[in-house]
Amino acid sequence: MTTTTEEYAHSIYRRVAQDYEIESFLHQTDTFNPESRRWAIPPSGTINGLVDAATQVLWTIVSRFVRSTGAGVTRTVTTLNPDSLPEAQKNDQAGSAPSPIVVIRASGPSFEEPPTTTVWPSKSFSNGPEMGSVKEVVQEMEPYARRIFEQQPNRLFVRCLLLTENHARLVHFDRAGVETTPLIDIHQHPDTFVRIITGLASVDERTLGLDDSIQWTIVNGRKEKGTLTTTNPSGALKTYPILEHIPIPRDTIAGRGTNCWRVRDPDSLDELVVKDSWRPDYMVAEHELLELAHDIPGVVQMVSYETGRGETKDFRCPNTAGKCHNRVAARTMMKSYGKSIDFFTSALQVLCAIRDAIAGHQRLVSDDLKILHRDISHNNILIGPDGAPEGVRGVLIDLDAAFKATNGLPNVTADFNIGTRIFQSLCVLSTYDIPGLLPAHDYLDDLESFFYVLAYTFLVHLPNGSRASSQDEGPSIVSRWDNPNASIAWRHKSRIFSGRDGLIAAKVVERTWGPICSSLFTKFGDWMSDMRHEKLAVHRQRGTEEANEDDSDDDEDEASDGEEEHRAVDSDPFTLFYSRRDAHYAYVLGLFDEAINKFRSSATHPPSATAPVASSTSNSAGSGGTGPGDAPVRGRVPSSDHHIPDPPPPAAQDMEVEQEPPLNITPHAPTLIDNPLSPLVRPPSPLQCVIQPRRSARIRVLRQKHNEDSTTTRPSPVRTIQPRRSARTTKRHREEDEHIDVPRVKRTKKSPTTVNGVH
């Protein structure tokens, strides 16, 4: 919160009334005594008495200086009992009850009567431009200001007045936060008091803090038709009929304050979506990134954009500039798609939507664009239109928080303040308390967010799109991720990989969504956990190497710039790690393609009478019948529409394995060897498989991986996979029967082998 200068407080509404008009009014009105220089507000008395006196004073000012400019445009002053509002049901921290509210009620193109179900039908915030209070507590006004922003979505800012017997304080709310004026003596500065009241009740909507590019036709006190004027693709102003307002719920006033409007082009009749938001001035404008993403499947497509719509610093005292983050009003017009994946109607629909959004994300982070989204969430993935082809069955939107990599700034540091808390990666959440070198936010963090979107979908919804009870195990797990404290959110979210929540989640998905989705959930979770551990290890390695470089001799400074650059690239452990980016996406997309193909196969070829049938518990949470989510898994289905092939895993029968007692999580739990891109040695997690390669097999695979990750100047040795023990026994019996003389090699147990520090 910032505080203005006294000069600003006296000049903020300087143009709304002339000096001679105010002087004439003060000598004519009965509510002000020029000799004693005092308004007709008693210096003491009951709350109701003060409210009545203040209401009368305000009404005399409004009726004199606020004049209607058109039919249906009016301003009146009334009182509102705060007990009728949910925002005022609680006492403040000092135990004081909320004070009564003096409301300047408005009618006009931006104001409507509240619904008839409201307790006070003519006194809702939807038709109150500003309000005054007789109690000087800024915190008391914030809920009311937030309500105004919600019910008047074309609001740029809200100004309120805190009024006591002798003083007033103007409070300004906008998307950058709160700003207040110093206390103003209303008796010693009656002209300032008159200007403030006149400005708060102005019939000019821009003065009130409203965006007048959005206008409404009021019929019987309700908004019936609306229009939005903005730039069209050719850059000329054009007015579009409003079909629907799409609110984006926010818990706070400060922030992006996004509002969306579904409109129709009056010429082509195409439906479009206009997005209004407030971005920090230090961030790249979304329309610049959307221009780069033109014709990229799986990413929202922009039609036009409008600049120069204002900044929060324009509404504030110039002396407070730099004391808060300035935000810039942004407006983009985009093609219209379906609703968010929160409104899916089938398992196949939501899997296709998430899959194509991941593919669109891969194209964004490609070397051609280098755009990292950083705010993957269920609200930022839209369902494509009915019958949409592959690639646009799901569309990624909202690049407000996206980062564009450049040669000068190749990466961005992870920040737990950016993104949607439920879907933030563990690496991003951990930045709340990481000493030393902070990790970069990379594409793996966004892929992890996609996993949480999938987990959210499976745990919070049923396969038919309806929501599970908030008391069920699934929603309870997810709700713990949405903690404003990043430390607590990290602790709860990490348990999905290595804790009791992971066991419960796997059982919930298996029971509710069936084996196909359970397999996808488990494999994706296992792979994501592996990638997270590998990235953390590489990050630690980089930190160690940088510390060693700082302690090295100055002899290295003699190298040429080209040699230094070449050495830096070769020595950076993340260079090799990120070189597998396309393979990482291929594996994740392959998991979704496999699940999608199985759904389609089960719908085209229903299981025979002798095929295994899912347990009855799988149907209990669904729509009552056996759906695609309950179809049995028939084996691995190759991807038919996946343009990046999934590397096949090593054959299980060619490796030595040791059986462990099953955890009874899912009958089709994947093994680590299903994923050739992940490290094969790490502590097992609840989502991990129960069949592990034997120690010797793991070491051989790790050695092969180590050779592949080494410099390419020498080829990696070919690994010979040892046949299973049963295969060797069979071969020996065959050789004995055929009298083949084969030299025998005695097997001996050796001490544990160490490869790259891993036993």
UniProtKB/TrEMBL annotation:
Fungal-type protein kinase domain sequence ranges: 131-307, 323-457
Protein name as annotated: Fungal-type protein kinase domain-containing protein
Biased composition (Acidic residues): 546-563
Source organism phylogeny: Eukaryota, Fungi, Dikarya, Basidiomycota, Agaricomycotina
Gene3D superfamilies xref list: Transferase(Phosphotransferase) domain 1
Region annotation (Disordered) ranges: 107-127, 538-569, 603-657, 702-759
Start-end of Low complexity biased regions: 603-621
Sequence ranges of Polar residues compositional bias: 115-127
Biased composition (Basic and acidic residues): 733-744
Domain of life of the organism encoding this protein: Eukaryota
